[in-house]
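ok so i was messing around last nite and threw this chain in just to see what happens. nothing serious, just curious
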Amino acid sequence: MTTLTWQRHQGHAFSYDVTQLGYNYRPSEITSALGLAQLRKLEGFNASRRRLTRVYHQRLAEVPGVTLPFVGREAESACHILPVLLPESADRAKVMAGLREDGIQTSIHYPPIHQFSFYRESVLTALVSLPVTEAVAARELTLPLFPTMTEEQVERVVERLRARLVG
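result:
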């Protein structure tokens, strides 16, 4: 948009033009109120995730072949996700399927950007090969982490991951 809503409300502009496709990301009053309420909990949530991340790191250090990125950086991070690198020999899809059978949801963060369709189809990235990025990304697995998670739940995730890597 060529002018801001604020400019129109202040009388500095009376109309606007849309020059390209975009989205309206303004939250409603209800979602704004929820957001403000959640912001009051942010410090405690971050502290909880940092504590759980330290527990995860202690337990995962005992799982052969699992690499922990960002160890020792918990104080600098909100610890919003818990990524691990599986052993090179692990079949990530099989491990994820097994953990799903165990009732443990996992995900992948973040696929290499140059492999997304939009970028793959562009002339500039069609010729790009990033072998180290691709090798690391193929081993990355994101484990559950949320502020109300218990240490017992962390223990169960680690125990089931260990079992799925062996079996």
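not much to say yet. The domain at 43-166 is CATH 3.90.1150.10 (Aspartate Aminotransferase, domain 1).
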